[in-house]
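Re: your question from the hallway

Yes, I did run it. Sequences:
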Amino acid sequence: MAQERKFKIGKPILEVKNISLSFGGVKAITDTSFDVLEHEVRAIIGPNGAGKSSMLNCINGIYKPQQGTVSFKGQQITNITPNIMAQMGLSRTFQNLALFKRMSVLDNILVGRKLHTKTNFLEVAFQLPKVKKEEKENRDRSEEIISFLEIEDIKDTPVGKLPYGLQKKVELGRALATDSSVILLDEPMAGMNVEEKRDMCRFILKVNDELGTTMVLIEHDMGVVMDISDRVVVLDYGKVIGDGTPDEVRSNQKVIDAYLGVEH
Amino acid sequence: MMKPVFMTYTKKDLINLAVCMVLSVLVIPTFITTEYWYTSILIPWLCLALATIGQQIVMGYTGQLALGAAGFMAAGAFAMFNLILRVPDLGFVGSLIVSGLIAAAFGILFGLPSLKVRGIYLMVATLASQFFIIWMIDKFGWFKNYDSSGIITAQDIVILGKPFTTPLAMYFVCLAVTTVLTLLAMNMARGSTGRNWMAVRDMDIAAESMGVSLLRTKVQAFAISAFYCGVAGALFAFCYLKSLEPVAFDIKLSFKILFMCILGGLGTINGAFIGAAFILLFPVLLNAIGNNVFHGAIDATIISSIEQVIFGGLMIIFMIYEPLGMAKLWENIKQKWKTKFPTMNIKNLTSSIGKKS
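Structure:
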């Protein structure tokens, strides 16, 4: 990228060391390590069943790896839970969409503002002035995100009624609303057509560019990944088989074999 | 979306509120003079609607299948009795709040299983509250002030030195408490608290990833729900039954409240009132039909059986065709009316166009 970046890529913000995860006898991830630098777009790619989503779930605390450590912002985190990671500034989206289906788009995004909501239920029940102030701030921020993602016209629609591509956008919006420093995107472009994919890429780059948010994304589509990411890590059968800039990864023989298949 | 005019309420809400208040404070007391309506319909309606709001909070909003509202009602009712008896300085309103808080403590205790089990299994686990609270009251004579008769007469309601003993006065007591608690529930449901509840209901893993603590949200919902049930139970005993007996708060009442919640519409506050009205009024209507149309030719026991059959049938029909209950049905009717007669909304239309430009 010839263009000067507003947020220069800095030190490692997220480090994954020697993670091993197995479900019973099935090894999902074996001794995997990689890092994510501040303000970069980092992609995790690999064929089906390579352990990409499991990796994100380990970072986010949904799965507990049997071995290995996760360090975030220079701090090694023991006993990771999704809640602790959210509080530390790591947000995520899910592969199979995990939106609040019966709530409107705006309400979904407002839930993302949870960590910026300090008032308790009694204060909410009695609608104290500070609740109104906080609610207004959260709503303003959510509206900003909604116009940033260009979904103003659907903001009052229940999410369950939206088409898939829009739901993915809403999920990105909800993750953005947390104002996290790192966002994990689990297949943000799965099931989208070319146009929607291009749109999504634009948003991911725009977020990274304007807000400096570090993006970690999982994607199947090699073309897309190579275009937007700074560095790529390739997993196959739960192991890292390549790690580097898109160009380095592209010329890596192991990666080519994993994707195209090789004669044994 | 309409802009809130006052607090979280839109203009439409305020109009609705005003209509309800005029109806309940002015119209009903002027036109309904028979005691029967107050003692047998309006007072239990308000009390049960309040308990149903409690059930809505835990089941409709937070999505935790809980069954045991009557247990918390019993806790509230007997707490009220003992507070008035032993701590008379608290006064009626103070006792009502404290008995709600005692019920809330039970709510927290019996809500804890929700962290580990869900769905139908949670329902079974929460049944414990129903049986445990009733058993506790029966077992330890202290709760009944060692009364041997089994049925204790509730003390008279005295607020600020004034007795509230006529049906109309008791109706106003119930109305005031229900109105205040309904407004508070609406504030919570529409604010950040309600969003957390619904997030846990719709997708708990995503809610947790957004920083919503499942433990806190679920326990909070159980506590608030039990508070509402406790206050409702105290009013139910003191204004409607005028006596205290554990049998009045049996599992049947819990099921009744569950039906009110489901038929009224899960996840709606107004559904609590609609559901409670339907379940209370329907038997009255059936009896009236039996007496006036068939002139008593149908046996009363058959009528009450028919009632059960119809409730059961309606539950199934609603679960299949309109899981969001009567509140949603009402919304749909309004929507159809609006599309049929668009001229009626010209005022709204022009004002919304004005806002956009």
